[in-house]
Amino acid sequence: MHDPTDGPPGETPIQKALRLKKAAIDQRPKPPRGGRFQAEQAAAHTSGSKSKPWMSR
Length: 57
Hints:
Helix content: 40-55%
Largest sheet: none
Number of helices: 2
Strand content: under 5%
Number of strands: 0
Structural class: mainly alpha
C-alpha cells in the first residue's frame, strides 16, 4: 500500500507541503458554475458603492 503523503524521492519538505496543500484545495467543494448564482455574484461585485464610502453624497 502506497502512502499518499510519500512524494517522489528527493522531494524537499517545502515541495511536499505545497503538494499536500494543493491536494487539500482540490478536495474542497467547488462553488456552482453558471446560472443564477453566477449572475448574482457578478451583480453584487459590480455594484461596489458600499465598498467605496467616499463615493456617496
